[in-house]
Structure formats: structure tokens, C-alpha cells
Amino acid sequence: MAIEPVITVPYEEMDGSPKESSSNDSGLSATRVLRCAWDDRLTLVEQLMGGVVIIDGVRTWTLPAKYPYDPNGIARVVNTPQIMPEGKPVGNAVGVEQFMSYKYAIITVQYGTNQQSYTSPEDEYLISNDLAGSIQVLTVPGRGKYFWTEDVLPVDIDNAPVKQIQMLEWTRTIGQVDEVPLIALSSVGKVNETAIDYSDYAPGVESLTFAPETLLMLPVSMEDQFLPRGNILQRVTLRFMWMGGLTAVDVQGWDTAAGTNGGWNHAFRPGRSNPERMWISNSDRQEQSVHRAYELTDLKAVLDALK
């Protein structure tokens, strides 16, 4: 759970502060103008803004500071858009190693009723999911089995119809990751060995389940996130492409037809309307003789490692 901030930097509020406004859309908004010692300005901003801080390897989530004049205690700091010096500078920035310094800093602090939930940052603030539909178009030649116009014109590669294969791209973004596990990189280009649940399908609706071998992991994206006190974390984006059934049909799993579109290790062959597996042996139909173009991996372990 997140904790309330502790403000240790002395400050005073300036005349004419605060300024408030309210609307049906955004609720209460306010702006305060604070003055503190110049050398303490960044520490005060960090304490007001909150966020994730890692000290000696321990992650602490601190809430933004509450607006002190809100009787409901809902409005919190959303931004500190300006930090200005006050008074004459102490020293001048002439040389490379010299810098400007002042006695006081004037900090503008904005508060609002932010719609984010801070109660469980691991689940509600750090992870987001998105499903987007797409299609793959395949040419389905008959190779002599089908004909156009009463057996006169054979269906071949030049005049074959096309088939649209329905697909879904699942994008999961995880913020503030302190370490990206190797499994997240080594699983790229592989498919799920076991069924994967998509729990965020819809509130109150049965979970969406991706059958084995229907979810292909795409390349991973990583972006630096700079946090207070110099910590650098990662924003990691995982992408998966689904093709096939939503639930396993065959209890053996490895031999399932995976729905009408098959899975990533199924393929269309001429003269057949449904996708099929390929086999290493012409007579052996056991699991060990299945030919898989896409290697199996534990994609559930990837998702669990980045929670």
C-alpha cells in the first residue's frame, strides 16, 4: 500500500495564495505559492509530488501531498510547474564549475482531484492493457481440387480467393520496473505453452482465455523513467499477437485444432478449409513428432515476472 508523504522542509505560503476553482468535470483545483530555502527547493518538490523512491534496494511508494484546505481530503498535488529564485544571487556562474545560488526559492504548486487510484499502485497505477483487432489475409489456392464455372477453370494461385484470418494484438505496459528479467527477452518469437487468461477483458464478464500455441510474443520495448533522487526505472511494453481459438478444444492441448483459425503452429494446405498441424513422421501422431515452426515457452512466467 502507498503511504502518506512526510514534509520535512520548512516553507511559508506567500500572500495571495491559494487560488481555487471548481468544475463538474475536474472537481476542485487550487494553486499555492510557497517559499523555502533555495538549497531545499528540489527536496520540497520531491516530497510534495510523491512517487516511487528506491533506497538501499527497497521500493517505497509515497502519495502526492494533500491540499491542506480541502475538507474532504481528496485534492492532491498534480504538478509543480514553476520554481523561481527570489532575491539577489549569491555568486555568479562565470566558470565551468561555478553556479548561481539564491537565498530563497518561490515554488508554484498545483492541486487537483486526480482520477488515478493510488491505493494499490502495483495493480492500478503501474500496469495497463490494451486489445486491438487486426487481420491477416491469406491466399487459399485449390490446386486442382476446386474449379470456377462448372469445372472449366481450375482454382489456382492466379485466381484463388483470399481468406481473412481474425487476430488480436494484446499490449501490456508496465511502469516503474526496476529490473527487466531475461525471460522477457528470451521469449520473443515464441508461443504460449499453456492457456493464458486475459483478466481485464471486462468487469463482470467471464475471462478471455488464449488457448495454447495461439499467442505469439512480439519484440519488447523499454523506455527509461527518471524518478526523484536520481533513480532510473524502466517502462516496459509487452506485445502479443493472438491467432486461433479462445479456448482449448482438445484435452491433450498439444493436438488441439485451436479453433477455426488454428494456432501459430497450424497452417492451411491446398484443398483444406481448416488449418492443420505438420508432422515429422508420416505414421507417428504422437506429441514428440509434431513439427512446430514456433517454439513453445512459458509466457505466463513472463507476465508474472513483470507484475
Structure overview:
- With 307 residues, this protein is mainly β.
- 8% of the residues lie in helices and 37% in strands.
- The protein has helices spanning 41-49, 121-125, 183-186, 299-305, and strands at 12-13, 19-23, 27-37, 51-55, 58-62, 76-86, 104-112, 127-139, 147-148, 153-154, 162-177, 191-192, 196-198, 208-210, 215-217, 221-226, 232-242, 278-279, 290-291, 296-297.
- The strands form 7 sheets. Strands 1, 2, 3, 6 and 7 form a 5-stranded antiparallel sheet that branches. Strands 8, 11, 15, 16 and 17 form a 5-stranded antiparallel sheet that branches. The protein has a two-stranded antiparallel sheet with strand order 4-5.
- Residues 117-125 and 246-260 have low confidence and may be disordered.
